[in-house]
Design goal:
Chains A, B: One of its GO terms (biological process) is fatty acid beta-oxidation using acyl-CoA oxidase. Chain A is α+β, with helices and mostly antiparallel strands and 699 residues long. Chain A has 25 helices and eleven strands. Chain A is globular. Chains A and B meet through α5, β7, α11, α12 and α13 of A and α5, β7, α11, α12 and α13 of B.
């Protein structure tokens, strides 16, 4: 391909340049970006990010230039090279867990060591006896063996109890036989397994004397430690290309009567006694499954930042992109309007900007609740906090109200937060118009990689059943007259108490009333669902849609509450100046009121609001808040502090050089431009075969 | 990679096999699939599809096995090879336009000849003088030159009037100079241009004597006809990887003072007189832009089928996939429940199934309206129906009410139909749980390729302004007392007439009332918007969100109306048996009532319904309809008649062999499994370098 000619290189975009426009945007607001960033993330986190970024940028393997162009095999090879380099850097620089996580966030793609680093290490550390920890976790921690966590099967994902892989105890030689009785028993979706891991923790149905004991964890070697070939009677490989997440080798795994020694069943909580050949039962059966609570809490914590990447890109781009003169423009206002000035764009982007902050504070609140729970559980006799995967939705819990509340909260918020982030990213991408469809926007690929979060760790629809079950249980308790013990029972009791008086929430005039209106709506829907289940005896399956709506309502209440409480906290009032704090309150109102008017019919039918209030929210309050927030939009996204290197986006560059960057990538970096085709129907495709071979050899 | 071992090959899925389950599904319904298909598409269309499919399947180049695996350069090469073969087959078999279109639908990917076949041929045929047609269209029609249509620029998409590329008339040597004055003038997104085309119709600002005359079409040779190298002073290439649509080479194009002869300005409707050097004005300036109406109408026509592919796949898969026992299951019902039996899945999929039929009938209605308009316009003196691209939203029309109604209708329906299809596809993908994320589901890649339809041919948000403008204009006319001349003015007049009496629509008891309720809501929102604009004098920009809601309401009314009228038509009652027709009426009610309860707050605030009616719709009517339609779901998607070859989906196979197919693709077809890595951090990535090279040489 011809290099970019000189006459092209001297061209610049027309009209006000992108960087001029962003400069003007930053000048018309006085939001103290650095202070706000420090408030959101702490100086320590920001400093760490900069330090780690410098190291990454100095290593060629992390260069992102070809990321969007490369095919799957190349992407995977590069990802593994990056994973190795990251490990080397971690050792060399003695990086902490936080440093390591900062690095992975900056690199912004899943890597083939991912499940080794998380689930394999965590499981071999936390579910092992001391002897097993020495045998399995220690070499894993030194990367002498590379592992993964093989639970999901072709035929079973959500219903963990239904797993088909078997682990049969052989009392004669004290071994287990791991076997895949059907095709659907094949492990599937197992991260780090497809090409990389040589070990796996395999969740398999324990069978002793023909009797099943449910899924338990077994360490199995999968591949030869030297040749990396699959061991005999094991069939393993990559499951193929996905909608995104293609830098990870998700794998399949089948066993044909593979024997493993007794020691390989991780036995901290349950075991087979080799002398008696009997199952040794754990104190709390739920601990065998562990909980997904920790994982769900981290999903909630991350959702705000995930969405904020898309909002940052779209906001900056829509401030640079100009199209059409204002219909009502006065004479002399000749230029085309910045797209971010259109209210139809603002109602999509600025409400999502508000959501990023809502999710951020909710994530912190969620993590606070989780850690409080951890402390309490550690204090409770003998029950070490369990932070492992594996729970199905049928998991039972201790009677602790705090734990039950945490569990339900994490389910509901995981569902709402990840849906909000995923769907919000697509709104951001679409708001960028035509150029949003190019991978150079950085939003599409990011969205594609994030999308499975709406399905894994509990499908977002399925999870709502657990929330509903908890709310129904709480409602029954309140109806019985039991004293409220947590926020959930408190809002239900309040609703009952006021049911003869009715509600009157000044949602447009008083922030606390806005929060209370969300609580009221949740309580109303809870008691409606309870009527359907307990009085009308409707089947569970017939109430699933009700449960989905109920869970969503409860979770939206929690987000609004968490956002409000974070702003009300004394620490917040101390750290932020009144103007910035006032702006955050506006974001809070925008999030809450926009959500309210989107869910208008439930707020109306629950009598939390009048039609008039809803109409005013929709047509007046929300529109006014958009207008007030608009001047600060660019500075607000700046406060999320994403380095350009992390975003890898032409549209979202800090300096606004959108068109120059798009053009550079297309004209200089694009491998497709290195081949010349023959366009005529009756000739072969390629004009010069050698070009293609030269390209292949570089790939 | 080790081939699939024998012990794996003999494995089958557990429990009731997929094909058994689908067989049972088909047995429990008596929907006459063949009859229904013939009713929907006509026997001629179905027969054509089978005939063309046979030809395609016999040609190796169309084999889809590697589609999901290949990287972008390979995908493009293969796509061009397929485009060439398709051209050869068209010539060899003397295929008609309909045969050709059937072939492209079966192949299911955009191809590098796409814009040559459509816009370049259409424009050179319809905007040429007879001499120009001979000079440009004839060799294009013979594929002696390959062209594209270069309108959109880096800096301008929606606002066509703002295009920056210039075409300056040189009165001395009777040429035009085509020039790109800024970087943002670069043509961008131009299909078939990136690597393939050697000509382009370039939309450029005509300048005569320093005076601008707006965008006009100019034929420009881009590449050498023999070497295919770009001509001097032209910089052209591919714009890079996109979220989808990567079998098309969308290109960029810059000019550095390139001269073209006078004859190259397509002059059927406007020209520069070479003797007088003056602009010769067309009778109707709008014809210079052409209209987008035809393109938008085809988008509406196709939307049902686009969505139906996802619904077919998800419905079949959710009938095969089983997970969890029913909580309320009686003793003896041991097996896990088909996912399609969960009401939370039904409310997502079966409502979309209803939408596919709604869109299908609306598309036909839309096309009928378009063709009626064509006839009328041909009859009108001298104005040949214009079916070309190029209009911006500022286009003006003749006074014809029919044309204005068609234009607004096409804008609103394009917006609603493509949004429904695109967002519906993602709902289908997500309803398939974990496996929906694999490309083997066939939904993700299809969605990715379809997604730009929500942005091009009029951004789906922007288009709603045109609908609103038309509705406001109609409302003003009705307020003045003018007699209604079309359906829009009729429903507005009706609303006015009844505004002192109020409405009473038996939406749950009478289908016609259900349609009327949608009309009422539209009229209410129209007069509300008119109040905001004409009485409160709100700025246009402040009303954009109102306009979006108004346009959506109007378009939803049109869909419901078209669906209903199609079912009421005598031809329908003649062709379909009462039971099948009854089922279609249920689908109509499901679509309309589900939409109603989703848009509950507007139906309530417009007083089209009571809260009670909405609650009953949501909790009773819709849930009951799901139950009644459920047994027929598989046969209903069968009636959309998608061959497995077209869908290319493991999850959506007619025979339900989901797991076998997924496994086969992963284990046998997957190139990533042909490389062996070294997993340890301090070693190079690849264990055997030659494997990678062997793989490359095959790619």
């Amino acid at each position: 391909m011809s290099p970019t000619p000189a006459w092209v290189k001297q061209l610049t975009p027309s009209g006000p340049q992108g960087h001029e426009l962003l400069k003007q945007e930053r000048e018309k607001s006085n939001v103290p970006v650095d202070k706000l960033s420090a408030f959101l993330f702490t100086k320590e986190v920001l400093e760490r990010k900069r330090r780690v970024l410098k190291v990454l940028q100095s290593e060629e393997v992390f260069d992102k230039s070809q990321n969007y162009f490369a095919g799957r095999v190349d992407r995977f090879e590069t990802a593994l090279a990056r994973a190795k380099k990251l490990r080397q850097l971690t050792v060399k620089h003695k990086w902490s867990q936080e440093d390591f996580r900062a690095a992975t966030e900056l690199i912004s793609e899943p890597g083939p060591y991912g499940l080794h680093e998380s689930m394999f290490l965590i499981t071999t550390r936390d579910q092992s006896t001391p002897e097993q920890r020495e045998r399995f976790w220690k070499p894993a921690d030194n990367y002498e063996i590379i592992g993964c966590y093989a639970q999901t099967e072709l035929g079973h994902g959500s219903n963990v109890r239904g797993l088909e892989t078997t682990a049969t105890w052989n009392s004669d030689d004290k071994t287990f036989t791991i076997h895949s009785p059907h095709l659907t028993a094949s492990k599937w979706w197992i991260g780090s397994l497809g090409r990389t891991a040589n070990h796996a923790v395999v969740m398999a149905q324990l069978i002793i004397d023909g009797k099943p004991y449910g899924p338990h964890p077994f360490v199995v070697q999968i591949r030869d430690l030297k040749t990396h070939e699959p061991l005999e009677n094991i069939h393993v490989g990559d499951i193929g290309p996905k909608f995104g997440y293609n830098t990870m080798d998700n794998g399949f795994l089948l066993f044909n009567q593979v024997k493993i020694p007794h020691i390989n069943m991780l036995a901290r909580f349950s075991a087979v006694d080799p002398k008696t050949n009997k199952y040794v039962r754990p104190a709390n059966p739920a601990l065998v499954y562990g909980t997904l609570t920790w994982v769900r809490s981290t999903i909630v914590l991350q959702a705000g930042g995930v969405l904020a990447r898309g909002v940052t890109i779209a906001t900056r781009y829509c401030a640079v992109r100009r199209q059409f003169q204002d219909r009502d423009a006065k004479e002399g206002e000749k230029g085309e309007t910045q797209v971010l000035n259109y209210t139809m764009v603002q109602i999509r982007l600025l409400t999502l900007l508000a959501a990023t902050f809502a999710l951020h504070f909710t994530g912190k609140g969620m993590m606070g609740l989780y850690e409080e729970n951890q402390k309490k559980m550690s204090a409770d006799a003998g029950q070490a906090a369990d932070t492992k995967r594996g729970a199905g939705p049928e998991e039972t819990h201790s009677g602790s109200d705090l734990l039950a509340d945490l569990h339900a909260t994490s389910c509901g918020l995981k569902s709402l937060a990840s849906t909000t982030a995923a769907e919000g990213l697509e709104v951001c991408r679409r708001a960028c118009g035509g150029h949003g469809y190019s991978n150079f926007s950085g939003i599409g690929p990011w969205y594609s990689d994030y999308l499975p979060t709406t399905t894994w760790e509990g499908d977002n629809y399925m999870l709502t059943q657990q929330v509903a079950r908890y709310l129904l249980k709480s409602a029954r308790s309140v109806l019985k007259g039991n004293k409220p013990t947590n926020d959930t029972t408190r809002i239900l009791a309040h609703f009952l108490r006021k049911s003869d008086i009715g509600a009157a929430f000044d949602v447009l005039g008083r922030d606390q009333d806005l929060v209370s209106a969300f609580a009221w709506r949740t309580a109303f829907l809870t008691f409606e669902a309870l009527k359907h289940r307990d009085e009308q005896k409707k089947a569970w399956n017939d109430l699933l849609v009700d449960f989905y709506r109920l869970s969503k309502a409860h979770s939206q209440y929690l987000v609004v509450k968490n956002f409000f409480e974070a702003l009300e906290a004394p620490a917040t009032h101390n750290e932020l100046d009144p103007e910035t704090l006032g702006l955050l309150y506006k974001l809070f109102r925008l999030y809450a009121l926009h959500t309210l008017e989107q869910e208008a019919s439930e707020f109306f039918s629950s009598s939390a609001c009048t039609v008039r209030q809803i109409t005013l929210a929709r047509n007046n309050a929300v529109m006014k808040l958009l207008e007030e927030i608009r001047p600060h939009a660019v500075r607000l996204v700046d406060s999320w502090d994403f380095p350009d290197w992390q975003l890898d986006s032409s549209l979202g560059r800090f300096d606004g050089k959108v068109y120059e960057d798009m053009f550079y990538r297309a004209s200089e970096l694009n491998p497709l431009n290195k081949i010349t085709v023959d366009p005529y129907p009756d000739s072969p495709v390629l004009f010069k075969r050698d070009e293609r071979e030269r390209l292949n050899s570089k790939l």
